[in-house]
Write a structure and sequence with these properties.
The protein is built from 3 helices and 11 strands, in the order ββαββαβββββαββ. The protein is mainly β and about 230 residues long.
């Protein structure tokens, strides 16, 4: 498997790259490849830097998820982009292939999530009255892009706009409404077990450049691999 991240943009202030599925956002005890280490090595090699290059991790993607990530090349830019993330001015959109069909073309999910640190799973509560005090309110919007089949089972391709960035939010919230993501081992595999990677990717990221303030938009195209490619003509 090729773990080399594709760099979409780089200047003196930030670096935008695509995290391959299966690569960690940052290192853990497993010793598996991670974006932070891979990109630091890329910078050291490209610029012949002595020692280790600085690179600030600003957000994460789950290990099985492919997608666009932004990193800061200076501590000042890390602070400025982190502020944008806190203020929710960084735009993120995801693609997901989920089990089942939707009657409406658009919808939203508002619920409260609580992560169990021991199991690394998120529990979803539909209303505040049902949720523990430390549960976090979460909100996303989705739009139906196309319909298809995986192993003979009806599936739907969604474009998801994330308004809150909680751990496992998309996976847990979609599962809670009866539409688990195809290939998701944690939150329900649906009516037909799928052997491949989870069909979820972060395809769109936009933010204000930390120095020039220019609005920057980064997108990756729909994958040409199975079963994503069946939606290419939608």
């Amino acid at each position: 498997m090729n773990h080399t991240p594709k760099v979409l943009f780089e200047d003196n202030h930030l670096l935008v790259a695509v995290k391959p599925a299966g690569v960690l956002s940052q290192s853990d005890s497993s010793g598996a490849p991670d974006m932070l280490t891979l990109l630091k090595s890329y910078l050291v090699e490209k610029y012949h830097k002595p020692g280790e290059a600085y690179l600030g991790l600003l957000h994460r993607l789950d290990r099985p998820v492919r997608g666009v990530m932004v990193f800061a090349k200076t501590s000042k830019c890390a602070s400025r982009i982190s502020e944008q993330i806190r203020n929710r001015t960084v735009g993120k959109k995801y693609r997901a292939v989920v089990y089942g069909a939707f009657e409406e073309k658009r919808g939203e999910i508002r619920s409260f999530l609580l992560k169990n640190a021991k199991t690394n799973l998120v529990e979803v509560f539909p209303a505040k009255e049902q949720a523990p005090r430390d549960a976090k309110e979460c909100f996303l919007e989705y739009e139906v892009v196309g319909n298809g089949r995986v192993a003979g089972v009806p599936v739907t391709l969604l474009s998801i706009t994330l308004h809150t960035g909680r751990s496992h939010q998309i996976r847990a919230q979609l599962s809670s409404i009866g539409h688990p993501i195809v290939g998701d081992r944690k939150y329900g595999s649906g009516p037909n077990r799928f052997a491949g990677d989870i069909l979820l990717e972060s395809y769109h990221l936009e933010l204000d450049h930390p120095v020039t303030k220019e609005r920057m938009v980064f997108e990756i195209p729909l994958s040409e691999e199975e079963p994503w490619n069946q939606f290419a003509k939608e």
